[in-house]
Every structure is written in structure tokens, then in C-alpha cells.
Automatic annotation (TrEMBL):
This is Related to GNAT family N-acetyltransferase. Keywords: Transferase. CDD domains: NAT_SF. GO terms for molecular function: acyltransferase activity, transferring groups other than amino-acyl groups.
Length: 175
């Protein structure tokens, strides 16, 4: 997949959590993650069997993306999953995570996989069904042995996030 295609997706409203990167940074991003691309390939004139292709044919359209941040052994974090709105409703939003699940199932020492989603109505149930992943809702418990209940999913927003300034202002208001 091309740097330009992924940057265009990152600039879209559909990927509200991301923003485009300089080309060199995006190239590194693509090289150091396990990326999944979804493409619309023009109709073939051939009526023969489907074959594996080594390169995308001309006029192929980039319509979806997802990436795993992983060490390929013990941990995987799924992020940046999207399908263009014009191609939603065709099952691709379930098919691509199923491809991710198939990949994860080949990692015999995988300790965990995780993701974050803000879409409780569509994405969370889909990921539960397709990936077998669970929503983790835990809380601090005063007086308990470890200070809380279960795992504590935690996240820090860094300067690379479009939400960074908003989070920084919220943190400043608490002081």
C-alpha cells in the first residue's frame, strides 16, 4: 500500500483519531507494523479461476486499512482499522478483522491482543464476535490487595494525536 493512500485515509474524517504523517515517517510506520490493506480491484475479463497476484493491477482503489503493532511472538495491538464509507455494509468490516484473527492464531506464544474503540454500538460487538476480544471495564477498589479489580487498561495521549491539545487542556483544568 502506498504512503499517499494511507496518508489520505489519515486525513479523512473517518479516521478522526489520526492525522497524516510526513512521508518518511509514514514509510517507517508502514515498514514497522503488520499492515492489512483492503483494495477494490477492477473486474477481470477472465472467467477462469481466481489466482494469487504479486502486485496490484492498475486502477486498484485503496478502501480499507488496519494495523497490528506486534513483536510477532507475545503481544499484538490492533489499531487504525477503517473501511471507506462507500464500501461499508458489504461485510468488509468483519472480513478484515477475521483476517487479523487468522494471523493472530498463527502466533503460538501470543500472550495477549488488545485494541481500543470509541464505537460501542458497531465496532465493540463486532470485535467481540470476530476477534473473541472482551471489553475490559475495571475500577479501583480501596482496600483490595492490588488496589483494583482485574487489569487496568491505561492510555496516554501523546503529541502525535489530534486529541493531544484537548487532553492537555483537560489535564491543566484539573490542577
Amino acid at each position: 500500500m502506498s504512503v499517499a493512500d494511507v496518508n489520505a485515509a489519515f486525513a479523512s474524517n473517518e479516521m478522526y483519531w489520526a492525522s497524516p504523517l510526513p512521508d518518511d515517517a509514514m514509510r517507517s510506520f508502514l515498514e514497522h507494523n503488520l499492515c492489512f490493506g483492503v483494495f477494490c480491484i477492477p473486474q477481470s475479463d477472465s472467467s477462469g479461476p481466481i489466482t494469487v497476484i504479486d502486485a496490484l493491477p492498475p486502477n486498484t482503489n485503496f478502501i480499507g486499512f488496519g494495523r497490528l503493532m506486534t513483536d510477532f511472538t507475545t503481544m499484538a495491538y490492533l489499531t487504525d482499522v477503517f473501511i471507506l464509507p462507500t464500501h461499508q455494509g458489504q461485510g468488509l468490516g468483519g472480513w478484515m478483522p477475521a483476517c487479523v484473527q487468522e494471523t493472530l492464531s498463527t502466533m503460538p506464544y501470543l500472550r495477549g491482543s488488545m485494541l481500543f474503540t470509541g464505537d460501542w454500538k458497531r465496532s465493540a460487538p463486532l470485535y467481540e464476535e470476530v476477534l473473541g476480544i472482551s471489553v475490559v471495564q475495571r475500577r479501583r477498589v480501596e482496600g483490595s490487595k492490588n488496589g483494583g479489580e482485574g487489569f487496568a487498561p491505561m492510555l496516554k495521549t501523546w503529541k502525535g494525536s489530534p486529541l493531544y491539545e484537548e487532553e492537555r487542556h483537560k489535564a491543566a483544568e484539573k490542577i
